[in-house]
Hints:
alpha/beta, Rossmann fold, 2 domains, six-stranded mixed sheet, globular, binds NADP nicotinamide-adenine-dinucleotide phosphate
Amino acid sequence: MQAWVVRGDGEPAAVLAREAVAEPDPDRLAGLKLDLAGWVTDPALLGNDDPEEAALFATRTAAVAARPPYEDWVLLRVDVAALALPDVTMARGTYPVRVARPYITGQEAVGEVIDAPPAKAHLVGRRVVAVTMQPWGSLAPVCVGVGPVFEVPDGMTAADAAGLVIPAHTGYHAAVRRGGVAAGERVVVLGAAGGLGSAMVQIAAARGAEVIAVVGDDAKAAHVTALGARHAVVHGGGDVAAAVRAQLGVAPVDVVLDPVQGDMGPSARWLLAPDGRWVVCGHAGGLRPIDPHFYMQNHTIVGATLGGYTRDVMRAMEHEAQDTVVAWWREGRFRPVTTEVVSFDAVPEACTAIAERRTRGRVVVEVTPGAAGQA
Ligand SMILES: NC(=O)c1ccc[n+]([C@@H]2O[C@H](COP(=O)([O-])OP(=O)(O)OC[C@H]3O[C@@H](n4cnc5c(N)ncnc54)[C@H](OP(=O)(O)O)[C@@H]3O)[C@@H](O)[C@H]2O)c1
């Protein structure tokens, strides 16, 4: 099959190559384990005999030794796949965990289940949305879905469903479960027009919070206002706290939802009231050490990532997020964050647009021509 493969480190346009690769093989998946960087696979079996990759494999193998093999996978014939900032940061080598080379890029897909282990056999022949992990990412005709795997909600297009799960589930985890956003609270969302940010704006608003969305330009301000943000603040590339105060005054906020970090996250923390929560759920602006004096302000720093829990806990969390967000979607209180559909050929340019902050919400890729509009 032809897939978008990364072998080196660099900007997506330089390192993404459309290559003929073998389809993922269900026999190869038996007994394999997952960590936050994907399937723990021997790089030699993927044709990479670099000693650094072998050392990475040994480290990862030791770290997952106590875990059971991952048995919640499905093999998918891909209709539509989503792109996101991790497609850029994994390629650059700046993702928080090192992703073994070579790998197929892409973290989310909609498609038909063509094979599954017994626990998921009831899904064979069904159209599902699934998360995908490297090396068998979603930018390929066939990929491996891992939890969450859900049937596409009735009436939702494949293009919308392909951009649903990661933003909505991560947003729910960050804002609701970890951040505890409650009705009446004032909540700042950084990177608010991005994929994850667009979901968090809506989730915080659905919880009854007053949302202050921080974005880079006026078009993104219009985007977040349409999603339910009470206020949109254009940061102008400078001090986020100063930009918010200049527009809205000095009243403190209860929560900062932060998928950006870099200079923005630490700046936005100064907007928090005592007992305020800084929920760190991404690193679009880069990872930074955290000021050890943070305790002097009685702030809580909260980490939020979808991973690291046992499979049973993850399953329960996945169902809670999916049921809640799909119910909000049916009530018109949440809309999927897909804004653009591009062709399979356009993957490198689309990744460059994400890297250059020119996109809003999610960009999805029609892997099977004509599939994006199917509901
Ligand atoms: N914790 C988890 O489980 C989880 C799950 C999904 C994603 N994430 C992480 O969340 C972050 C956002 O992902 P995403 O897919 O939503 O990204 P995205 O769609 O590209 O949005 C990121 C937003 O961050 C802002 N930003 C500020 N500084 C930036 C910089 N230096 N480079 C790029 N963007 C910058 C941009 O907004 P302006 O241009 O408007 O400032 C952009 O709209 C990533 O770090 C991703 O890895 C984490």
